[in-house]
Amino acid sequence: MFTGIVAAVGRITAVEEIDRQNYAYTIQGPTGFFDDSRLGDSIMVAGVCLSIVDKSDQQARFEIMAPTVAQTTFGNLAVGDRVNLEKSLPLTGRLDGHFVLGHVDGRGKIISQKKVGQTIELEIQVEDESLWPYFVSKGSVALDGTSLTIVRVVGPVLTIGLIPITQANTTFGTKQVGDFVNVETDILAKYSQRQEALHV
């Protein structure tokens, strides 16, 4: 489990097609980021929970199945692209964001970007209608692994605000209109809707 508080920004240094069903991505992190990580450890990369299969120096290698590549932004990522990184939450760790699993529900597209003072407001269009019930104003959503508060919801469009520290410490500081982001809805909202459906 994760919190959506991005710990570092890494960079893709290699993409390899192992076979038709599996791909390998090598990520370089900041100095020391992977030092205490072991093979098999879970790292959230751009909002996707992945396991380390190999590591050397400041890099870690992850294998991803083809369906995950197709259903997330990994299908659009290439060598040189930046990705948000977060290590899994230890049992005694602080939960500063919200419960994030790294299980992406779908993708969203940035359709608008504007500056409001020091804040950047982004409008994200989510085409998958099955996800819409989980979006509420002042609720939480994870975009590319970043825990964010929804400012407002109008149909399939979410508005989120990026404060300066989020702009500086995540990949959102360089996002542009037309870019896609991984979307994970709030797990508590999912459980709530599930319980409600069972008792109808």
Automatic annotation (TrEMBL):
Molecular function in Gene Ontology: riboflavin synthase activity
EC nos: 2.5.1.9
Classification via InterPro entries: ATP_synth_asu-like_sf (IPR023366), Lumazine-bd (IPR001783), Lumazine-bd_dom (IPR026017), Riboflavin_synthase-like_b-brl (IPR017938)
Lumazine-binding repeat segments: 1-98, 99-196
Annotated ranges, domain Lumazine-binding: 1-98, 99-196
Keywords: Repeat, Riboflavin biosynthesis, Transferase
GO aspect biological process, one term: riboflavin biosynthetic process
PROSITE patterns for the chain: LUMAZINE_BIND
Superkingdom of origin: Bacteria
Recorded catalytic activity of this chain's protein: 2 6,7-dimethyl-8-(1-D-ribityl)lumazine + H(+) = 5-amino-6-(D-ribitylamino)uracil + riboflavin
Pathway involvement of the protein, from the record: Cofactor biosynthesis; riboflavin biosynthesis; riboflavin from 2-hydroxy-3-oxobutyl phosphate and 5-amino-6-(D-ribitylamino)uracil: step 2/2
Broad class of enzyme this protein falls into: transferase
Function according to Swiss-Prot or TrEMBL: Catalyzes the dismutation of two molecules of 6,7-dimethyl-8-ribityllumazine, resulting in the formation of riboflavin and 5-amino-6-(D-ribitylamino)uracil.
Record-given protein name: Riboflavin synthase
Organism in which the protein naturally occurs: Fructobacillus tropaeoli
Gene: ribE
